[in-house]
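Chapter summary example.
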Amino acid sequence: MLLGVIADDLTGATDVALMLAREGMRVVQTVGVPASAEALPDADAVVVSMKSRTNPAAEAVEWSLAACDALIGAGAKQILFKYCSTFDSTDDGNIGPVAEALMKRLGARFTVACPAFPANGRSVFQGHLFVGAVLLSDSPMKDHPLTPMRDSNLVRVLARQTKLPVGLVPFATVEKGPAAVRAAFEDIAKDGPAMAVADAVTDAQLRVLGEAFDGLPLLTGGSGIALGLPENFRRAGLLGPKSASRAFQAPKGKTAVLAGSCSAATRGQVADAVSKGVPAFALDPVAIAEKRMTAASVLDWALPKLGDMPVLVYSTAEPEAVREVQERFGRDASGAMIEHLLGEVAQGLAAAGVTRLVVAGGETSGAVVGALGVSMLEIGPEIDPGVPWTLAADGKRIALALKSGNFGTPDFFTKALKMLG
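The structure predicted for these 421 residues follows.
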C-alpha cells in the first residue's frame, strides 16, 4: 500500500477513491474501521470510510486513529484525512481535533488543510472557501441542518477547532510552484507543530500542491487534494503508468433512489425526477416519529411499483421545514430516525430484487450501506464529478451510486441509472 485514506463519511470516501483511480492507482474502499492491518485488501490505495463527520469529536478521533494504525500497519507511506469540500464541521470539530490527533500519532510537525475541488465549484482563495461564485457563508451550506457553515474564512474556522497555530499558503505562493510551497510549509512550522490552509482555484494548482506534499506524513482536505499524489509515487518508481480501467458490470435487476439529503442540489434532483414521472414517496418525519409511517408502509407503496422505472423515496425538505422538525424532535434524533428508516427500506428493496440503488446524502449513504451489510466497494465509472458507480466487492449483488448531498447535476438520478442501461 502506498496511500492510506481516512474519510469521514461514505460518499466522501467514494469521491476520493474515484479521484485516485482516475490517476492510475488500484483503489479499494472499505466500509467502517478495519479490525486490523491484516483485514485490509491488497491495493495501491485503501480508503477507509467512516461515519464520523457529525458524531462527538472524541469518537471521531478514536475511530480515525484506529484506521490510521491499520493503514500504517499495512504499509501506507502517507495518510490523507479526507473531509467534505465544504469543510463541514462545527466549532467543536471534527476536522481540527482529528487532524491534530493524527499529527501526534504520525509524528508530523506540519499538515495542510485544502478542501478545494474546482470541478465541483469549490475553490479556496486567500483562505476563504467559495462555492461557485459565492462565499461558503453565502451558499446554501449556511442552512445545513447538522453543520451550518456561516464563516468562509477557513483559517479562522480551523483555528477555533485546534490548539495549534493555523497559517495560510496563499494563492501567490502556490502560483510560484512546489518549491515555494514547501518553503512556506517550513516557515509556518519553524516554531513548532502547525497547520495551514492552502489556496487552490484550479486543478493545475492542486497538482502543484500535490508535488509539494511529497514526503509529508499527513495531509487533510477534500478529494481534490489527492489529484497530484499518485504522480509522486510514480516519480519514485513505486507506481506504474496509468492503464485503462476494466469494464464495470452492474448486476441486472430493478432500480430505486433513496434521498435523505436536504441540500439545494438534492432538492433540485428530486424535483427533476418527479417532473420526469418517477414514482415518488415523500417521508413525513412527524409520522415517522409517531410510528404512523414505517419502513413496512413505505415498502407497501414501493414494491408494487418496481419495474421499468425506478422508485424514489425521499425525505428532502426546505430549510424552514427541517428546522421545525429539529426543534420538535432534536437535531440528532430527527436525522437518525430518517436514516434508520431509509436503511430498513433499502433492505426491503434489495430483498425484492433491487440491484441498482442511487443514494443521496452522506449520512443516508452510511445508513444504507450499513443496513445492507456491504463491507467493501469496487470503484466504477464516474457519473458526475466526485460521484462514481460502485459495486459491492464482498459477494453481495448490488451496484450503488453514493452521492454527497451537494454534488451532481439536476438530472443526476435518472442519468446515473441510464448509464447502466
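To summarize the output: The mean pLDDT is 93.
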